[in-house]
Fold this protein.
Amino acid sequence: MDRMLKKAIITIVFPTIVSGISGCAVISNSSIDNEGDSRRVNNVMWNNQIDTDFRTLLAREVDTNETRLVFIRKNDDDLEQTSANISVNNRYQVSLHPGNYTAVNSCVGINQLSAHATGFKDNNLLANKQDYQLDGGQTYFFYVDMDDSGKSTLEQITTDSALPLLETKRYQAHQISRVVPNCAAPMAVIVPIPEVLPVVPVLAEKVTIELEVLFETDKSVVRPEYYSKISEVASFMSQYQNTIVTIEGHTDSRASEYYNQALSQRRVDAVKEVLITQFGIDPERLNAIGYGESQPRATNDTAAGRQLNRRVVAVVEERVNN
């Protein structure tokens, strides 16, 4: 398994330059900015990490039928595919990046916790799991480290050890947790009144994001080096949680019309699957349509025109409430 991840990492560091392949090259007209931890698509911006006061988070009371889990990732220079998929009881929490932390509530009793490298691409949320007996109303801290082969270390640490580490960490805020503490109600239930009600951002108008995802000839497998491009769509959907996305695939006119339509459909289906399995996007929020050669945006008589016609785009729009 280590050899598999090392191969994936080598692919990331030395990407293959692909050009002139039907359905592969993409030219983006969208304004996308990935400077630092900021992300921008056209006029919409969000952050992968945010500065938080962890003391305020830890000061919040935990119900007696729940327990709070804080996962802290070591600062290192590991590649993106060694992000740690954190899971609690076989439910996805976050793909934790170096130098970040995340917090989530779970139920009291035995909890199965796991840290597993994203680059293995097996969506195994129970890989390397460890069982912990956790008490109600308490906060537990876990230190996460991943080496460059993808080997994970998940270690429970004390509060005194955790607090200095949190001083230098930022909260990872751009992914949707699947951990739901459906815990039995305590004897006495106290419902806290939030100081500020959360406001769900509304996408004012449709946004089109061009995905720079290239495929090998006649293939529909998304290679790991393009996951970071697809993660931009996942992050945008996390920011605007009432949106749906249509992934559209287009080719040039070489080969038959039937062949091009089928190839484009297989490729958008593959991108959709990555959004579901790697980034936890609800399948009900995703559509995938392969248009083949039917919607060219330039002439197919020149190499430059054909390159413009080979593209994969994600169209994001606000979901209409029934």
